[in-house]
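Now read these lines:
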Amino acid sequence: MSESPQAPPRPRAKRVALSSGLLGAMFLMATSAIGPGFITQTTTFTAQLGATFAFAILVSILVDIAVQLNIWRVIGVSGTRAQDLANKVLPGAGYLLAVLIVFGGLVFNVGNIAGTALGLDALAGVDARIAGAVSAALAIALFLVKRAGAAMDRILIGLGLLMIGLTLYAAIVSDPPVGDALVQSVLPERLGSDVFLATVTIIGGTVGGYITYAGAHRLVESGQTGRENVDAVARTSVTGIIVTGVMRVLLFLAVLGVVTGGAAILDAPNPPAEAFRQAAGEVGLRLFGVIMWAAAITSVIGASYTSISFVTTFSPRLDRAKGWLVAGFIAVSTVIYLFLGQAPATLLVLAGALNGLILPVGLGIMLWVAARRSHDLLSGYRYPKWLLGIGVAAWLLTVYIAANALTGIADLWQ
């Protein structure tokens, strides 16, 4: 009896490609969250709250996981970007979501360009305008080369690992009270309004605005979607949040060691840079420069790519010009930075408030897609009830964040 011929080992090659695509999406999400604002917020709250901030970090990680598990699951199974899903659920909602994302991404990208300038200044004393322009040129070049997607994945992975490694070194040399931080992550000494404010602020900074969709949209572009990839998509989304959480924990410990040593960093012109200088002297200041530049340039890439991904599906011509649109987005951000020196304070506040509104609107639409009885947008996939439940719980918290954002918008017009 003759044996049937064996099939070639194609599945193994497919798994390698799958891992590569998901890895790139994971680091795009993580590095988009780790920007200049991330570093500044973590430093400020650590100096204000001390070891108690560990509790806020733990809660934020759990909420972030709940949000991203649902966002990635819906977009990953459907293989459709958020704005297109929104238009299918409520005609016109996708266009509104795209406008909010692009505006918020543009304003924050000006801040990201400023962050690259701040990093190169701390690293080598480069003039701020020259540093910002050179960094923007590097980012533009990335999107104009062939196979930009693969190059972007490799660069983001490398810079992400570099940031974590350098911050780990700073955390070690600052000699933080790790035991106290571990205890207070679950048993905080106090739970006041300041701790709650810190928690909701860093949640918005990690999964708010364009950051929410960065990895999921890269996932769609890589083609690693569909019901057959659900488990891998879920693991990758959680891992991306954990990567972000690890970076925040290491930065928190680095600053905590300095603060518990008696240094008053909040009075310094640049508190994060002062924290690194206190931890490791001039070497620490240079380390901060590298970390800040890496965080800012990856956020430039993430903000630009994700913002443009919200408009390219509206027209085939826009999709074909995607690389040039991203390059133009970065160029406009840079011009605004060069003329104004930084994003106007009012625009930054407004963009931050709008990002607070985007989170519950976008998450609410994704949860509605998941809960639809017809499951037409998910090709018959039965969405897990437990996942939908934790998504709704996270959504309720984002509604609270949005209410505060509306208060911020109202204050702007008074």
